Structures are given as structure tokens and as C-alpha cells.
Amino acid sequence: MSRIIVDGLDTSIVNTEFLKLLQAGGVDCIHKSMGEIQSYGNIYQFVDDHAQDVTIARTVGEILQAKKDGKISLVFGSQDVNHIERMMDKDATGTYAPMRASLRGYYELGLRIQGICYNVTNVFGGGNLDPKVPLTRAGSRLVEEIHKLKLVLDVGGHTGEQTSLDAIKISSGVPIVCTHSNMAALVPNPRAISDRLCEAIAGTGGVIGITAISDFQKRSYMNYKQHGASSPQATLDDHMDQYDHLKRLVGVDHIGLGPDFVWGWGQDFIHQAADSLTFPPDAMGDGVPKLVRDFEDISKLPNLIKGLQGRGWTEAELDKLLGLNWLRVYKQVWGA
Fold it and tell me: How many CA atoms, within 13 angstroms, populate the side-chain half-sphere of residue 26?
């Protein structure tokens, strides 16, 4: 089988135009970030209507079969558990039963990757804006349930550093991932993760995905006032520096694509930093989020591949980065 390419995290709107972008980029599988139950219904309907081109995968075997069949496979993930927290709030007795039931329900719908927080603190732990908040007692139970269901645990990025390290500590023998973040050692944006956390994730056998969000690679607490409402657009060279740094730090076996594209959102994703609880001014500027120049959507993936080849990345290393690393973790956690 030829090279398999996995888009390790994408929030783009799934429609026929997006499928064309995936095909132009050579993508075989996409980890689609999902919301509450309606989002699953919408995707299932789309897949029913376009079954010749796309399918839903729950196992690595189904991902590989889809590639053989010439179809793009969708793997479902959730970046946080806020919707599950809301279900727990409805339980007057305050038990963990709603958490277990909600996770199981979403698992049956196809959920296979699960995060903890989305930038701010919840009942389970700290978001990236509260990096010193630890994993709570409820968070420990959540991590246990995630592992019982054989979901891939997603830390870092939106989840704070201490909560992430705590979750890794109680996850012995299981690879943990960060599906989409950037390198704080290069640009200390609140959404970026430290070398220490990268090393901890790699120590589990896990993978770190790199986003293509421009501000996370240009904007920080040190320069956001200077940049004002809009930071310079990250170049492809800026972006490739992220991969090279991570490769030197933890090795090529622990790097993946995690571009976090927002294609199709358009004017529905206009950001006002001063009023944002989750992306304050040191994290992101105003307006529609900018992507890396020449890597603005998944169809431009060949530009990244060509650029990394120019930096000396071998074909074997690119095979790992582009898909094999994600598939290794998926198989180890989900089983065959």
C-alpha cells in the first residue's frame, strides 16, 4: 500500500468542497473534531449521501480498508468534555454515572479520541490559560473511564500543563497524544506546549500534532501589544521550524499532522480578542484566524511535504509524520 496520510485534527466544515480539498492534499483519513450529538447526526447524513467517497472509521483496519476502497475515512474526536460536564450538572445526586453514560454513548456513535479542557478550567482540570491547575479528583475518574473505553486521551494544547502531566502520570502503559498544538520554546503562545510536556507525551509512546494556526506561531505574551490587533502571518518556513524543533527534541516517531484547519467557517469565526474568555489578546488577534502562508487548507499539504524534503527529511521520516505515527497509537489504544 502507498503512503497513508492522516490529518490528525481538523475542525473544517465537512461538505463536498472539503472532500475535494482532502483529495487534492492526498489525505486518506481525517480526525474530525466533533461537538454535541447533532454534529454526529449531520456527519452521518453526509456520509450516507456520499458513501462512494467517504466513510466513518472506528478501527485502524477500517481506515486501511477505506484507503483500499478509494474512500476518505473520518475518525471522530472531541476536544473537551464540557458537554459531559453539563450532563453531570443535571444529576441531582452528583454521581459519576452521567459521565460514564455520556462517554459510552458517544463511543457508540464513533468517538475515538477525547480531550479534557478547552482553554479554561472545568470540573476535571485546568485549561491552557490556567496551566498550574492540577487534574482534579473528577478528572482522575474521567481519565480512568477514557482508558476503560479504549479512547485515545488528548492532552496539552487546550488542556493546561499540570493537568496534562497529571493525566499522563496515571496513564501507565498507554500512549497519550496532543492532537494539535505548537512549540512554546519557539513562540510562547498560551496555546503552545512546553518541551517538558512534549517529552512526557513522547515518553508514553504518544504523538504531538502541529497546528497551522498562524497566531500560535507568531503571537505571544511578549509581543502581542507590539503586534496589536493582527500579528504577521506565519510563513511556511516558520511552520517547518516547529517540526524540526520537535524532531530534535523527541524524535520523528512522536510527530504528526494536527493542522486544526477551520475551512468553511468563514465569517462565523470572527474573533474579538478583548472580549474572548478562551483566546485572549496574547493568544490570538482579531478577525478570522489566519493560517500559515502556503498552508492555508489541507489541499496545500504538498507544499509542506516539499518543504520538509528540502530540509532533509527522508521519505521514511515523512511516512511516519504524515500517518504511520497516528496509526500506531490508534492501533495500540483501540486494538486491531
Answer: 13
